[in-house]
Amino acid sequence: MRAANRRPRGFPSLPLKRLVALNSETLPDGELRDCENVPLKEDIHEYFEREVRPHVADAWIDEEKTKVGYEIPLTRHFYKYSPPRPLDEIQTELAESEREIMGVLREVVG
Question: What is the pTM of this model?
Answer without folding.
Answer: 0.46
